[in-house]
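Run: sequence + magnesium ion -> complex structure.
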Amino acid sequence: MVNIVEEYIAKVRSRIFKDESKLSIEYVPPKLPHREEQLKRLVSYFINFVENPGSCFPKVIEVGDIGTGKTVCAKKFGQDVTDYAKKVGKPIKYVHVNCYKCRTLFLILQEVASQLQLPVPKRGFSTQELLKIILDLLVDKNLYVIITLDEVDSLLQTPGGEGALYTLVRVTDEYLGREHRIGLILISRDENFIFKLDPSVRSALQHNVIKFPPYTKAQIYDILHDRAEEAFIEGVVRPEILDMIAEISGKDTGGRGDARYAIEILWRAGKIAEVEGTSVILPDHVRKAVKDTLVSISVEELKSLKKHQLLLLLAVVRVLQRKRTEVKVPLSEVEAEYRMLCEEFGEKPRQHTQVWEYVQELKSRGILNATVGSKYSRGRTTLVGIMHEPLGTLEKTILAVLRGGDHG
Ligand SMILES: Nc1ncnc2c1ncn2[C@@H]1O[C@H](COP(=O)(O)OP(=O)(O)OP(=O)(O)O)[C@@H](O)[C@H]1O
Ligand SMILES: [Mg+2]
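>> structure
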């Protein structure tokens, strides 16, 4: 007799993955190859804050292109610093806030309070009151906090966002007198970010910049090698496959040096091998995975967009698909398509001004290109286009995200 439990398990158990979660974006691996220098510098900036809490107010900026390890290094530093602090009995906490999701000081502070599990009322307070409450609680509970403001450049694109940054950068001057309870790590893709700031804030930051250069092929190989060991059953991924993906993504071999892109291809290739029922990943699985992977936009990024931004983006894709010879199309046509999509998805369309703001946001995130007028058109029509992604792949991914319902 066949054991039905055994049979079932044998059928559903992957022959490819040992632990797929090791390829997910949230995972912080124990080692970060080729980021030793950056991690060491983070430690050196914060060592005083850790050894003598309250003695200084460290402020550091991490800058580098997409997928160069800025977020994961800050998180790894956060984990290690809190582990160490615990061991030696120092009351230091780490908080990681994504400013794209928390665009105002109020939202940032709420997020800080929630991650620190501070008993802060949700409503009925102004931002300044909330800040005061949090700072008082830090004193009451004798806590010191390292706050990472990830994607901090999105604050500069929101009204009031810049003020949020100033308040935080100068927080100890204004509120705490001599005791420094906060340290800051700011993360930005844009290298010129600091030059866009008020000189008083800039001077406090510009000497503490840690750069994250794009990864080379050899570096991506090492990163993939470690991940593959954790995520795949032994023998599933041969070195040639890692080499192939590293070559596609390495800065020196024509890629962008983006580790996220490389890891996503590896994961997708694994999924394709799983579906095709092979016991190893083949080069053709990688080729197919590349075709399915967006180059300049990550799935995570799409997931972080609002539903109506996704619908608008889908509308751009649809109009561009229809007008195959056009590089850019008028926003008015996109809006008409967007309204139709809203109907299809049972959503009430947003007003023109809101749509226009969405376009600006998508533009500033590098997802859309938008220009006003062109030599081909008179007047001030806004023209939008998508430069880097094959429309079919983008459409498929947007639809998957919309159907997954997994967005903000
Ligand atoms: N040196 C490394 N070792 C291991 N994994 C890495 C390394 N660098 C990046 N990664 C992985 O690559 C992916 C992208 O890294 P991360 O999210 O830190 O990039 P980022 O610089 O913050 O990019 P973005 O600007 O798009 O937010 C993550 O899954 C991360 O774990
Ligand atoms: Mg990041």
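>> summary
Strands lie at 59-64, 92-98, 144-150, 182-188, 209-212, 329-330, 369-374, 377-385. The mean pLDDT is 90.
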